[in-house]
Every structure is written in structure tokens, then in C-alpha cells.
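Appendix C: a fully annotated inverse folding record. The material below is reproduced so that readers can follow the format used throughout the book. The structure is listed first as C-alpha cells, followed by the designed sequence.
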């Protein structure tokens, strides 16, 4: 299940680069947000941290949606057959790769650390936090932190009361 979600996340991030319409870009960001929060929740003891991240991402997405809808409000959405074929090809390739190599599903890069956590400390909350910031899920957490930082900086730079598309029309 984790490998399938990870492959869907890779596919959606590669499809995000081909998107041109703000609505489709926002939809891909929603998919990536949901997948990354679900992956982070599967690696931890509880889904609480993933729920907080999801709510934070949705708040940032709402600000971005307001800004983009004020810029491109009447732009037509065009459906691309080329994009659909590329998505179909990528998903079938990912599924074939997962099914051909059985070690990809059960591979664990940090088994020594996880066994140390389970043997030394029976506190599940502490082991959950340690698992979240160790190697398999550390990159997901770091990418989420960097994304939130960049979203906050871009929102602050974009929204100026006296200038920009979010100002009041006279």
C-alpha cells in the first residue's frame, strides 16, 4: 500500500510539471498533499500529526486559490489527451515495476534503528516521533516543511494591500 501511494505521489509530482491551468495545478497539489499526509500517517503511531499538516496545507491552498482565481478568473480549462496518455503510461509502468521486484515492497533502510527503538523504548508516542524524523520519512517531513515555508514567503510577498490583484476595485 505504501509503495503504491509513493508511486502515485511520484506520478502526480511529475504530472504537476506539465500542468498549465491554475485549477489543474491546485488539484494536483491537493492530491500530493493528501498522499503525503497519508504516507506520513502510515509511518507514525497516530494520524494526528498528519491531520494537522493536512489542515495547514488546506489553509495555504485556500490563500493560493483566492489569489489565482482573482488573476485567471475567466480562463478556459482545456483537457489534454496527451496528458491522459502520459498518466496512463506512467501508472502502468509504476505498477509493473512494483510487481516485478518483490524487494521494493518490503525493503527497510533503517531496520537497526527501528529495532533499537522497539527494544529500548516501549513508549509508542516517543517511538512514533523518532520514526517520523528518521530516514524513511525524514525526507517527506523536510519537503513538507520547505513547502510550507515557501508558501508562506510567497503569500507574504504576493499580498500587498495597496498593489496587486487582491486590491479593491474602484
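Designed amino acids, in order:
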Amino acid at each position: 500500500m505504501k509503495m503504491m501511494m509513493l508511486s502515485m505521489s511520484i506520478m502526480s509530482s511529475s504530472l504537476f510539471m506539465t500542468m498549465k491551468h491554475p485549477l489543474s495545478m491546485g488539484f494536483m497539489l491537493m492530491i500530493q498533499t493528501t498522499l503525503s499526509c497519508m504516507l506520513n500517517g502510515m509511518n507514525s503511531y497516530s494520524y494526528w500529526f498528519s491531520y494537522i499538516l493536512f489542515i495547514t496545507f488546506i489553509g495555504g491552498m485556500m490563500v493560493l486559490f483566492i489569489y489565482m482565481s482573482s488573476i485567471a478568473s475567466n480562463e478556459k480549462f482545456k483537457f489534454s489527451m496527451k496528458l491522459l496518455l502520459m498518466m496512463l503510461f506512467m501508472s502502468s509502468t509504476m505498477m509493473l515495476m512494483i510487481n516485478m521486484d518483490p524487494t521494493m515492497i518490503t525493503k527497510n533502510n533503517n531496520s537497526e534503528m527501528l529495532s533499537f527503538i522497539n527494544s529500548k523504548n516501549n513508549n509508542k508516542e516517543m517511538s512514533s516521533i523518532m520514526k517520523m524524523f528518521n530516514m524513511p520519512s525524514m525526507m517527506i517531513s523536510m519537503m513538507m516543511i520547505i513547502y510550507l515555508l515557501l508558501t508562506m514567503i510567497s503569500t507574504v510577498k504576493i499580498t500587498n494591500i495597496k498593489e496587486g490583484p487582491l486590491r479593491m476595485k474602484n
